[in-house]
Design a protein that fits this description.
The strands form 2 sheets. A 9-stranded mixed beta sheet has the order 6-5-4-3-2-1-8-9-10. Strands 7-11 form a two-stranded antiparallel sheet. Helix content is 23%, strand content 16%. Helix 3 runs parallel beside helix 4. By secondary structure, the chain is α/β, with parallel strands linked by helices. Helix 4 links the parallel strand 2 and strand 3. The chain contains 7 helices and 11 strands.
Length: 281
């Protein structure tokens, strides 16, 4: 599958991704999780996004913005994640899920079946080349079997590398999407694993429109996008800022100016989604 094909499988529109917890046990070698955890812990002692804070934050977000359970860690490592999904759905938001589902149990899944999703994409464990395959135990296998049999029309499975041998016979081949080549996550991944791109020069745009696909952290902070693992661009905090104010504040305006060619640090220049902005002349 090409990068463009993969992008086309994901709906457009504004999205708020939810990082429910700081730290992750999946251990993807191409995910700079340690960098995020170290930086976040230096800023806040809050590890888990509590349900009441989630409700306060989502209460500031228009229903036209989808809520995506993805972010910088596995959502269901927070035991309140299913309640968060139910609350966001009840508030009228489109729901997206993008993760391995580690931490989810059968009761969670049965509750999730009662809802509709804009997209429900499960990242399949590989054979251990990039991920902690020891997490693929009997309980997880039973969950995936139940998920395959569930009545969720939008479900898709996405794989990087070779699918874990215990999952090969469970996941329908027609629902399996192969990812494009690994990303450097805007030069955050070890260059020995993924070589970083040359910095984008001049005015640029984001092929994924991530300027409106922002990430809520456990302490209420909102980072610019899912590539900001080290928090270089924090737009505000939804525990006290209104959603629309995130895009009127000095950080967002500075990002826009720099995407338009103004000098200054811009994390986007190292990102694979950055493209040269077409001339309007």
């Amino acid at each position: 599958m090409s990068l463009q094909d993969f992008r086309s499988a994901i709906p457009g529109g504004r999205v708020l991704e939810i990082t429910t917890t700081t730290g992750c046990i999946v251990g993807r070698s191409y995910c700079p999780q340690d960098k995020f955890a170290a930086r976040q812990r230096a800023v806040s002692h809050i590890k888990h996004l509590c349900l009441e804070d989630f409700k306060r934050c989502v209460g500031r977000v228009p229903a036209t913005v989808d809520i995506s359970f993805a972010g910088y860690s596995e959502p269901w490592l927070n035991p309140k994640c299913t309640e968060m999904v139910e609350h966001a759905c009840a508030c009228g938001h489109g729901i997206r899920i993008f993760k391995t589902l580690v931490g989810m149990n059968g009761r969670d899944l049965r509750r999730l079946q009662a809802m509709r999703y804009r997209v429900f994409m499960v990242h399949v464990f590989d054979d251990g080349a990039y991920m902690n395959s020891r997490l693929v135990g009997q309980e997880y296998l039973d969950l995936i079997r139940e998920l395959v049999d569930a009545d969720i029309s939008s479900i898709r499975f996405v794989a990087s590398g070779e699918v874990h041998p215990d999952l090969v016979e469970i996941i329908p081949s027609g629902a399996l999407i192969r990812t494009p080549p690994l990303s450097s996550r805007a030069a955050s991944v070890d260059p020995k694993m993924v070589e970083s791109r040359e910095p984008a020069i001049g005015p640029l745009t984001c092929a994924d429109e991530r300027q409106y696909r922002n990430v809520l952290l456990p302490n209420g902070d909102v980072t610019f996008c899912c590539m900001d693992f080290e928090r270089p661009h924090v737009l505000g905090n939804l525990l006290h800022d209104e959603y629309e104010d995130l895009f009127k504040g000095p950080i967002f305006c500075e990002i826009v100016d720099r995407m338009n060619g103004m000098n200054g640090f811009l994390h986007c220049r190292m990102c694979e989604a950055a493209e040269k902005k077409a001339s309007t002349c």
